């Protein structure tokens, strides 16, 4: 069986790059948000092998990962970023507060995606050679690729009249599609609002 591709290499590298964060010396809200990011990173690591076909699919593990994303989304996420909280070892960029509406929107969207992923968990994976391999969700320049939809605000709903999927709609997808969309929200936030690692 050919492994399915559900998360682009760049997106997964961005998410797993959180592991390199130096927690030593972090205090207060910076430590809190680093802990939250670590928990989400662990959630990604726990299900990514299932999504690629490298491990047996486990519906409940996917739901637990979705619960982790949901727990750290919306206000729970934004409250961990009070203005000016950039002291080392934080990797938060000032762009968060300069583009607060976008950051807030990404945090809220993560919650919608997490709810959709939880609903989609029981749907299993899309067949090999299907939706996720064709690039319709992740590749090229369609819905998720190259930062097109996520980067332009199409999925974020901040472009006039742009599409915004509901948790119910995401819940109709195969779990690997919902997982890909969820991790793309994380990657979009990291790309815009986190310092690049050296």
Polypeptide structure, described:
With 198 residues, the protein is mainly α. The chain has one domain (9-193). It is built from ten helices and no strands. It is globular and about 45 Å long. The N and C termini lie far apart (37 Å). Mean pLDDT is 78; it is low at 1-6, 17-22 and 128-163.
Give me some keywords for this one:
single chain; 10 helices; Cyt_c_II; Cytochrome c; heme binding; heme; metal-binding
Summarize the structure.
It comes from Antarcticimicrobium luteum. With 198 residues, the chain is mostly helical. Helices cover 54% and strands 0% of the residues.
Q: Kindly, what is the distance between the CA atoms of the first and last residues, rounded to a whole number of angstroms?
A: 37 Å
Counted up, domains total 1
Output the radius of gyration: 16 Å
Q: Which stretches are poorly predicted, pLDDT < 50 over at least 5 residues?
A: 1-6, 17-22, 128-163
| SSE string | HHHHHHHHHH
The largest β sheet comes out as:
none
* Global geometry: globular
What order do the helices and strands come in, and which of them pair?
Blueprint: H1 9-16, H2 28-51, H3 59-71, H4 74-78, H5 95-98, H6 100-120, H7 131-134, H8 148-152, H9 167-170, H10 175-193
